[in-house]
């Protein structure tokens, strides 16, 4: 059974999962990785979800305020051996539920076009593709999504 825990970016399990995510994304992003790293700092994220299986942290996600009433989903990751079990959707559901509880009206996010599984997850979770926002405007490797809460 998978158990979710709401926490913050001080959580050591979250930090370890993010370290694995950063290693994975360095390979995906290649030479453009430095551009993305600057927007993925986790030092002050107050809304983090870590998913556990038998006391092992196996997946995570977070959100932070992008602007008033808009939360940005960040740091979504599922360990490779746990992929394909619906954990990404479970994390997203918990994050959007929590964002709504915090009075946000919508959630936005960015991912790489090349990350087909992530793009599929967001589409199948009710997110709609939107024009790239903020720092992703003009970045042709990025695709952005939103969901109204």
User: Strand share of the residues?
Assistant: 25-35%
Task: Please report the number of helical segments.
Answer: 4
Unreliable parts: none
Radius of gyration: 14 Å
Describe the structure.
This protein is an alpha+beta fold and 149 residues long. It has a single domain, classed as 3-Layer(aba) Sandwich (Aminopeptidase). 32% of the residues lie in helices and 34% in strands. It contains 4 helices and 7 strands; from the N terminus they run E-H-H-E-E-E-H-E-H-E-E. It has helices at 12-29, 33-37, 87-101, 116-124; strands at residues 2-7, 47-53, 56-67, 70-78, 106-112, 128-130, 142-148. Strands 1-2-3-4-5-7-6 form a 7-stranded mixed beta sheet, sandwiched between helices. Strand 2 (47-53) and strand 3 form a beta hairpin. The longest helix is centred in the N-terminal third of the chain and has 18 residues, at 12-29. The chain is globular and about 40 Å long. The chain starts with a strand and ends with a strand.
